[in-house]
Amino acid sequence: MPFTPLRLLIAYDAAGNRCGRVVSRMKVLLEERAFEVDTFEIGGEPPDLSGYQGVVIGTPVRGFAVSDAGPTAKVAHFIEQTEELDEKKVALFCVYDIRPGNIFDRMKNLLNARGIDVVTEYPYWRLQPRDGEDGLPAECMVRIRTR
Description:
The protein is an alpha/beta fold. It has 4 helices and 5 strands.
């Protein structure tokens, strides 16, 4: 049986280029794990997800990530409005300045409200985005590749 690479979409809020600092490297690491990867800067019309087995969603976290810090409005809108997202395996990442806070809990609450479970999550520190950079791609390889 021939091997067929799985397609992933990395959808992220490009505000302040925080997520952009990790997306290009994340794409390479996922492609090294035999995924076909496209990227999408969140804003405007959500993309057609029909060809993707998984979606990786990223948001910047600003400041101290205290009580009201959550995903950006663009990311929340993407989670709430994107059709077919509930049929995909979803992974999350954030890029933070000081600490990630409870960003993943807030994002998972939005996803769970749509019946979507998160397969993995990973925080990246803006000042050293390559620390542990293999974490999310390795988890995607195990949790998205398995059916």
